[in-house]
Amino acid sequence: MAAYDKAAADFRTRHAASLRNARVGILAYYDPELSLVHDPVKLLPPQVFTDLGGQLATIKGRSGTDKVSLENLDLLDDLDAIFLLAPKADIGGLDSNKLWRRVPAVSRSRVVVADERTYYGSIYSATELVTQFDKLFSTLT
Questions:
Q1: Membrane spanning segments where (predicted)?
Q2: pLDDT by residue (tens digit) across 12-34?
Q3: For residue 5, is it left (φ>0), alpha (ψ between -120 and 50) or beta?
Q4: How many CB atoms are located within 10 Å of the residue 101 CB?
């Protein structure tokens, strides 16, 4: 627990300005679907993100674990950054998808892909999520 608390405190210090203003979406990719991961009660990534001081971005009326089709990726246009969870951190062909590459956060390289096994878990997973969120927020500076 001490390692998580230290990592979280360091993160908050390093990214205080970005935390106040950044619009971040947490999504899961299971080819060919994208889903929001904005349920901080059931899922660890949004729990950790809100614990760090982040606010989950609203995505045009979508919430919880709503799906976002590839045809509706424009719903993500207002995001400053995307935290993307995928099996074994592998997004396969999504990276070469023209619609995906048009999303502003993607075209600005403000996407971090993490292993979806951090969905649930222990303090180890939470600490790893802080590391991954740190990578993401480092793209905003």
A1: none
A2: 999 999 998 999 999 999 888 89
A3: alpha
A4: 12
Yes or no: say if 24 and 57 are a contact pair by the CB < 8 Å rule: yes
**CATH number 3.40.1110.10 given to 2-138:** no
Query: Which region holds residue 109: left if phi is over 0, alpha if psi is between -120 and 50, else beta?
Result: left
Q: Give 60-96 pLDDT, tens digit per residue.
A: 777 777 889 899 999 999 999 999 999 988 898 898 9
Instruction: Using a cut of 0.90, tell me whether the model's pTM lies above it.
Output: yes
Cα separation of 104 and 75, whole Å? 11
Nearest to 88 by CA among 37, 1, 30, 35: 30
